Amino acid sequence: MTENGNDDPAESLYEFHVANHEADEGGFWGEAFELPGCMSQGETEAELYANMRDAIRAVLASYAEDGEPPPLGRALKTATLRVPVPR
Asked: pTM higher than 0.85, yes or no?
């Protein structure tokens, strides 16, 4: 396996954006913005990212098994919002 997690050089690579959250009970959980419902967790950030790669691969395999294309063409938009916080 290469450094970027790709097993087959003939496969195309797609960048997934993963939100990394600290879990209240310790560890981390994450979600892939481009694949709704694709989430995983890990005790460390490294474990989270390894688990997220596995979760992304599983979701993509599920789309392939169903004969459906994954929703990869959606544009990801992010924004930073400033909101006052009561004291």
From this structure: no
